[in-house]
Amino acid sequence: ATGLITMDPGYKNTGSCESKITFLDGEEGKLLYRGYPIEQIADKSNFEEVMFLLLKGELPTQEELDGFVADIRKNTEVAEELVQMLNAFPQGAHPMGILSSLTSALSAFNPEKISVATEEEMYDAAVTLLGQFPVIAAWTQRKIKGLPLTKSDSSLSYVENFYQMLFNDGTEGYKADPVIVDAFDKLLILHADHEQNCSASTVRLVGSSHAGIFASISAGISALWGPLHGGANQAVLEMLEAIQNDGGDVAKFINKAKDKEDPFRLMGFGHRVYKNFDPRARIIKVAADNVLTTLGINDPILDIAKGLEQACLEDDYFKSRQLYPNVDFYSGIIYKALDIPTDMFTVMFAVGRLPGWIAQWMEMRQTNQPIGRPRQLYTGAATRDYVEMSAR
Ligand code: SDX
Fold first, then answer.
1. Helix, strand, or coil here: 113?
2. Catalytic residue status for 271
3. Which residue among 16, 228, 326, 380 is buried most deeply as judged by most CB within 10 Å?
4. Is the dihedral of CA 268, 278, 23, 17 positive or negative?
5. Cβ neighbours of 383 (radius 10 Å)
6. Which of 73-87, 151-165, 294-308 has the lowest mean pLDDT?
7. What is the pLDDT of residue 5?
């Protein structure tokens, strides 16, 4: 009806779904959040407003936004027991494993928000998680850096508050650089939702059994962790640093990627849906340039990334397979410039993706979707009789 692509009724058993939240056109490189083009949203909006838009379906009035932000701010106190759980993890634990565990543990400290039936109960569970999650996410960075835990400051915007919880060094009157906060806000917007990607589909599938929001989102975090999905932003930086350490010869790495004997994936390239360009990658590439210029950082890694991108765009193997940079290709360069540890890159992705996961969980529950039950194409043995041990 809206000229956008919809699934035919047969989709019911394919694990696909109907949704009103995000629209992608892989050929056109188009991404819409509730109908609004990502380019306009990234340029004109902010993460608090995008969270409201994804959950509620419309851009908020100032009064609606103030009420939404206030509801989140009521939920930034995290149970002391989670600090004890955080301390129990070994120093080298990957923050995504900690984040997934502590998110699931929120079920134990918010039992009344597991079994929800009304829109109001779902919204209440949503703002509880939106309040608690950035605190826990910031604590994972404090832990891996061996720093004291920080507290939420409800006088700040959502993003500035998250950033100060990551980096507040306790000096009197600490204030985050507004240029950095703005870049951070844009990055979180660009990661906020992306239709039925691996982690969002995981959230829907787990949520469809009515396991509750905390368990569903914890499952989504685990899915995002994989290097083929959100974990790619960490893998990209490790790959670019390997190219740098190997003398910066991008052609050598591209040839490795084409070597069928020893398949090597160029991380940050390719996409299941975008077979042209990922509109988010274009925006993040410009933001990376701006952040490094503004901060006066001359990071050779950015030049290696640009050289790798250019070489791939001109290479027949990559062109014939429609492989272009995706959202993860440039984001890590900005995170690195913001002094975020590589292990934390996918946690940053998770903080951005949280409102999208929650919006999809709410949509799935509010439209009374049946329990997810994808079918299979059976290619195993035909029916046969049992064979006694003596006859085997
Ligand atoms: C995200 O789904 C989403 O929306 C995800 C996401 C989101 O916002 O939620 O956009 C976030 O996960 C982005 C993707 C991050 N992952 C990476 O950057 C990891 C590297 N990329 C690849 O693993 C791969 O491109 C995928 C997983 C992203 C997509 O895989 P596809 O579409 O299943 O591609 P494929 O495996 O079928 O490969 C097709 C061909 C193969 O060659 P042939 O067998 O035809 O000879 O392309 C080749 C692949 O070998 N190929 C690559 C490649 N990706 C695909 N070759 C080299 N480097 C790559 N990155």
1. helix
2. yes
3. 326
4. negative
5. 4
6. 294-308
7. 52
Q: Whose CA is nearest to atom 8 of ligand 1?
A: 194
DSSP-assigned states of every residue in 293-354: HHTT---HHHHHHHHHHHHHHT-HHHHHTT--B-HHHHHHHHHHHTT--GGGHHHHHHHHHH
Closest residue by CA, ligand 1 atom 3: 197
pLDDT exceeds cutoff 90 at 268: yes
CA-nearest residue, atom 14 of ligand 1? 229
**Could you tell me if 185 and 9 are in contact, meaning their C-beta atoms sit under 8 angstroms apart?**
no
* Each residue's pLDDT tens digit, 301-313: 999 999 999 999 9
**Ligand 1 contact, 271 CB (< 6 A):** yes
The alpha carbon of residue 247 and the mean position of all alpha carbons in its chain are separated, in whole angstroms, by 32
**Rounded to 5 degrees, what are φ and ψ at 8?**
-80, 160
Q: Are 243 and 249 in contact (CB under 8 A)?
A: yes
What sign has the CA pseudo-torsion 346, 268, 322, 260?
negative
210 tagged catalytic: no
230 pLDDT tier (thresholds 50, 70, 90): very high
Q: Residues 6 or more apart from 310 whose CB is under 8 A from it?
A: none
Distant-in-sequence, close-in-space partners of 32: CB < 8 Å, separation ≥ 6: 22, 23, 24, 38
Pair of tokens at residue 331: 């984001």
Task: Write the ipTM.
Answer: 0.96
Determine the distance separating the centroid of ligand 1 and the alpha carbon of 326, expressed in angstroms: 9
Query: Could you tell me if 116 and 212 are in contact, meaning their C-beta atoms sit under 8 angstroms apart?
Result: yes
- In 191-299, where does DSSP find H-type helix? 198-207, 213-225, 232-245, 250-258, 279-294
Q: What is the pLDDT of residue 259?
A: 85
Residue 45 contacts by C-beta under 8 Å, 6 or more apart in sequence? 36, 53, 59, 189
229 CA → ligand 1 middle, Å: 9
Instruction: Show the tokens assigned to 288.
Output: 């990376």
Rounded mean pLDDT, 347-353: 98
**269 CB near ligand 1 (under 6 Å):** yes
